[in-house]
Amino acid sequence: METIFISFFKKISTYTLIIFTSVSTLFSQEDITITELKDHISFLASEENMGRFPGTKANKQVIKYIKKEFKSSGLQKMKGGFFQDFKAKIRVKKGEESMPPVKTWNVVGMIQGNDPRLKNEYIVLGAHYDHLGMGGPSSKAPDTVAIHHGADDNASGTAALMEIAEKLSHNNTSLKRSIIFVAFGAEEQGLLGSKHFAQNPPIPAEQIKLMINMDMVGRLNNQNHIYMGGAGTFPGGVELMKNNAPDLGLTPIVHAGSVGGSDHVSFYRQQISVIGLHTGGHPQYHRPEDTVEKINFEGHQKVCEYIYSAILKIAGSDMPLTFIDQG
């Protein structure tokens, strides 16, 4: 009899532990955590992934990782699935023989909005996952053959993308508009992934009302500056981004124009409103020394919360989203 009771209570304890663990996991997934941001960047910027160069085995490992995260967060696949493939022409140093184009991918997922009308309007949140591999013509250490880890550029943006997607998925009842999440490939080869997506979207292009891009968002400085350009490309954008999430203690540096040179440019060229966000340059940009140890994870978390808050305000309202050319 004693053996039976011990066995019974062991089973009850095991079931209780399983339930507790499941509940704890559920609640932890709802938050943007430093632990998860660090885990994502540590994987993306690892020695194993060798700078996430297009056309490599590491490139395939990374897109599978992002897809897995998208699926576990409950994102829906779009027309064509989670992967959008395209060919990327690789940059070479002056005088070197050109290389044949390589196959690479964008990773795409979606949360559908809840308003009968506004769910057909889409906000795109994006970041590029690729970097420079072992160096090459875009390296700031041109004579060095070494892994360019790209922890800030742009593992920080990709980690933010996955964490914000996870939190928005858990709060999707607040969304009127739909949101598309895209991890772009081959940005470092000339914005190729975003160009391909903007010209071949899985929905009619006119339904994309705003593109928000995160490129180098992991090195918040002591002044807590979060920089952004393009906020004047839609009505009320500058005011919204200046006044967004004051409790986070950030200092938004907001430009109406200054669209800049990252993936949001591909959408601006298609007359789609954009915001491009970053936390500023640093001496490790495009060098092997851009490593995970230099990420300001507390600042990175704040930046993610700031972007999450802005998306919630835009996608959760019926504020007009019309394109305004900034010249």
CATH topology of the largest domain: Aminopeptidase
Element-by-element helix/strand order: HHHEEEHEHEEHEHEH
Query: Which architecture name of the largest domain does CATH use?
Result: 3-Layer(aba) Sandwich
* Biggest sheet overview: 8 strands, mixed
CATH homologous superfamily designation of the largest domain: Zn peptidases
Q: What's the overall average pLDDT, rounded? A: 92
- The total strand number stands at 8
Low-confidence stretches: 1-28
CATH class of the largest domain: Alpha Beta
The level of helicity is 25-40%
Side by side, the strands of the main sheet go 1-2-4-3-5-8-6-7
Q: Overall 3D geometry? A: globular
Structural class call reads alpha/beta
Summarize the structure.
It is built from eight helices and eight strands, in the order αααβββαβαββαβαβα. It is α/β, with parallel strands linked by helices and 327 residues long.
Your description of this structure?
With 327 residues, this protein is an alpha/beta fold. The protein folds into 2 domains: 1-30; 33-315, 3-Layer(aba) Sandwich (Aminopeptidase), CATH 3.40.630.10. It has 8 helices and 8 strands. The protein has helices at 2-29, 34-44, 57-72, 151-170, 192-199, 237-243, 264-268, 297-315; strands at residues 83-88, 102-111, 122-128, 178-184, 208-214, 225-229, 251-254, 273-278. Helix 2 packs across helix 4 (151-170) and helix 4 (151-170) packs across helix 8 (297-315). The longest helix is centred in the N-terminal third of the chain and has 28 residues, at 2-29.
